[in-house]
Specification:
The structure is a homodimer. By secondary structure, chain A is of the alpha/beta class. The first copy, chain A, has a domain at 96-365: 3-Layer(aba) Sandwich (Aspartate Aminotransferase, domain 2). Helices cover 43% and strands 12% of the residues of chain A. Chain A is built from 16 helices and 11 strands. Chain A has helices at 7-27, 41-45, 57-70, 90-102, 113-130, 150-165, 170-173, 189-197, 219-231, 254-264, 301-304, 319-326, 336-340, 359-394, 423-435, 468-486; strands spanning 143-147, 179-184, 205-208, 235-242, 267-271, 296-299, 312-316, 398-400, 408-413, 442-447, 453-460. A 7-stranded mixed beta sheet of chain A has the order 1-7-6-5-4-2-3, with helices on both faces. In chain A, strands 8-9-11-10 form a 4-stranded antiparallel beta sheet. In chain A, a hairpin with a 5-residue loop joins strand 10 (442-447) and strand 11. The longest helix of chain A has 36 residues, at 359-394. The model of chain A has no long low-confidence stretch (mean pLDDT 95). Chains A and B meet through helix 1, helix 2, helix 3, helix 4 and helix 5 of A and helix 1, helix 2, helix 3, helix 4 and helix 5 of B.
Chain lengths: 488, 488
């Protein structure tokens, strides 16, 4: 072979790949959600290496259909209820395809102007859709940018916070004081990881107590921690509040945390990775009270807003501070537009230099669905979760463990002993439910008022293919397996 | 609209998008390489927002064809010679398409086993192709992983180096000593950025002098800097050597730098972002002498190996050290496979938690082209660069400024005054050449033995569509414009 694929060959093989995906989506409901295999089984079935002279696309697609697909957990399966949804959709896939075909680099405005300008415009649209603060718009003092994930958004927020807390010394001098970071015990692991990456160490992260009923951060506990740290000579730099924690979708009291941030001059970052998408619905915007106090905010359209990974929407209220923290300009990137200060160069808003045209997929999703289409998607997830929670509560063997404002329901078997004594049956229930291959759930641990950590099942609804019928069937399956577990 | 795109709708629109790309690639040669427009011009032509009920794909593709495409720099254009190439290819685009369609998350082995196993296998193939050290293979002590870019690879290497230099304290205590990082004056800006992100500050980066003829790092200067820093109480942690610098593709003396790294117990990271691809050709492997001394190594298939951004191949010799530096395991990600230690969880090899199935595009590229196809691609770039350099040297108005072992030629007009006095005509030459819209070049500054920084034109060859004819036409155009500049 040894030659480049011509446009006409690409047309032919492109149709085949599109067909492959359409067929995959059509047969998804008939596949087991998860693969049941041992480590190394897939690797052992792959070729030993590339051939000397290349292979036809048909041979590669054949391996994809057999070997690779058999080794996947199907995140787009209607019975996938694990973790959080990782939505994709037809328009998003088209956007990724077009992005790949264009193959442009958007590191600077000058390296492909439309790549930057479409991103700015689409993130402004998204800020409108979520009714985010005016400061987050490009016409204001801040703006939005696509990060690969909320982990990167948290890291970037941490760096901007350190720049501010150091009065600008951090760029040159590094971490020269005992900076501290605050989140709740329920904050995402990426907050600790960002602190570690930023050179603060895990020891700099204060995991603030939560209200045992809501699992939301306690402002009084935060205030006490801030006082204690300042008294001990530490330098508080950042508060990370969460709207929709990963474990249970708890909502921190952002208005109170924002007031503390202002009082102490700290950077407030709001991590709404999963739940931010809910704010497209006016009736769910109560969950976003206080975001106008945040210096930065992020959510993942790649979780619950029908846009394939990677697409985290990250907003700052003061873009100048962020850019100052992250910019470096080597000679080979100097250009007139940058020096005139008339453009946004997104490489100064992120860790990496290079960036692709990820805004295209968001652009396609927002335009295909329209405002009402996006709202319907979110509303269906919230409604199905509410209906499931009602069904769980109506079965006296079960309890709903936490509030369920979004698409996640956390529940467990009460078990004979209650409390921690009920963990083994719940672990067994999860194992058996997942072993059916018909649905896939994950778990978490929730600490109750008495301090015991209870094993809890998580059922997250949000895949585009998931219908009322799938959720009802899932609950029926869980009930049946529970009957069998409890009979032993 | 307000409804999800069905598989059958996706099939229809997918064909349209494939056609759009095939047509775009076909008409690329007829488009101007760069857009000529003012900041904000594209944004002003986009819709004010998404509609209430959605739009058909045809309307969105129409905007793509007119507004968006007119605002792009076409990185896949045969006349694109700027920066470094950002190759993509038909098989790579198919891989990205299939990755988007599958929509799986590979953060853990358990979250989609084939996503991890294909990546491990493909990175082993790539290590074979480049003849990288045995320690970088998954069967050895290390292994490979895909990062989004070489910037992220450098950051991850910096973190692993700090973990080692601190004897493991860094995870908990953060940056608690004056750690220092060494690279040459020609090292990439991402090295300074990584040091800043890691909390060391720009001040911790020592930019070591280079040999003025080769622009390669001087080992004696590095040794002196290490001695001076240690004497002053600093703690050297990391050396970043470059194979193929961004400015001029200079090659640092890795064997000597590696010996110094061993002697001082420092982490050696080799950044071969652009030039690593050359090692698929046995006759170019001399450029990789000494890589067996490196603790980590990276190169970008998304630059010169026909795989679309983002795809950086990052290797470590000791995966245990890397994983220890970056791992965090919250309850909701606990699973049997991870706890058994039988699998690789790639989230512990990178900054972010989430990751998509990027290995697919690399898998398609390696299998479609085969070993010889990849070599032919590299060899053509190297040959064309050599031929261009010969032509430049034969025109007495010009000089070739640096060696050109790969696909980049650095050259300039000698100008009347020589030295810095010749900068303005070279700047004017670049401006006029790019203004034709027929080709696109960028520039750099090269410091000569007398300490003056000279403005130099860079012409990087490597796009799949670029043929002998395009390079000859480019050189003719440059000569014509030079005649016009020099006549004034």
């Amino acid at each position: 072979m040894a030659t480049h694929m011509t446009p006409e060959q690409f047309r032919r093989y492109g149709y085949q790949a599109v067909d492959w995906i359409a067929d995959y989506w059509s047969r998804l409901p008939s596949l087991p959600v998860t693969a049941s295999l041992e480590p190394g089984q897939i690797a052992a079935r792959l070729p030993a290496g590339p051939t000397e002279h290349g292979e036809p696309v048909e041979a590669i697609l054949a391996d994809l259909s057999t070997v690779v697909t058999e080794g996947l957990t199907h995140w787009q399966h209607p019975g996938f209820f694990g973790y959080f949804p990782a939505n994709t959709s037809g328009p998003s896939v088209l956007g990724d395809l077009l992005c790949a075909g264009l193959g442009v680099q958007g590191m600077l405005w000058a390296t492909s102007p439309a790549c930057t300008e479409v991103e700015t415009v689409v993130l402004d649209w998204l800020a409108d859709l979520l009714d985010l603060p005016a400061a987050y718009r490009s016409a204001g003092t801040g703006g939005g940018v696509i990060q690969d994930s909320a982990s990167s958004a948290t890291l970037v927020a941490t760096l901007a916070a350190l720049h501010r807390a150091s009065g600008g010394r951090w760029r040159e001098a590094g971490v020269d004081r005992r900076y501290t970071v605050y989140t709740s015990t329920q904050g995402h692991s990426s907050i600790e990881k960002a602190a570690r990456i930023a050179g603060l160490g895990n020891g700099a992260v204060r995991q603030i107590e939560v209200d045992p009923a809501t699992l939301a951060m306690r402002p009084d506990a935060l205030a006490a921690a801030l006082r204690a740290d300042v008294a001990a000579g530490a330098v508080p730099a950042l508060i990370v509040a969460t709207i929709g924690t990963t474990s249970t979708t708890a909502i921190d009291p952002v208005p109170e945390l924002g007031a503390l941030a202002r009082q102490h001059g700290l950077w407030l970052h709001v991590d709404a990775a999963y739940a931010g998408a809910a704010a497209v619905c006016p009736e769910l915007r109560w969950t976003h009270a206080g975001v106008e106090l945040a210096d930065s905010y992020c959510f993942d359209p790649h979780k619950w807003l029908l846009t394939g990974f990677d697409c985290d929407a990250f907003y700052v209220a003061d873009r100048a501070g962020l850019i100052e923290a992250l910019s470096i300009l080597p000679e080979y990137l100097r250009n007139a537009a940058t020096e005139a200060g008339a453009v946004l160069d997104y490489r100064d808003w992120q860790v990496s230099l290079g960036r692709r045209f990820r805004a295209l997929k968001l652009w396609l999703v927002l335009r295909w669905y329209g405002v009402q289409g996006l709202r319907e998607h979110i509303r269906r997830g919230v409604r199905l979760a509410a209906e499931l929670a009602t069904a769980v509560a109506a079965d006296e063997r079960f309890e709903v463990v936490t509030p369920h404002p979004f698409g996640l329901v956390c529940f467990r078997l009460r078990g004979a002993g209650g409390g921690e004594a009920a963990d083994p049956p719940n672990e067994e229930l999860l194992r058996r439910v997942n072993a059916t291959g018909r649905i896939f759930l994950t778990h978490t641990r929730v600490t109750s008022a008495d301090g015991t950590g209870r094993y809890v099942l998580r059922l997250a609804i949000g895949a585009p293919q998931t219908t009322d019928e799938h959720v009802r069937a899932a609950w029926k399956l869980i009930q049946e397996q529970a009957t069998s577990v409890l009979a032993e």
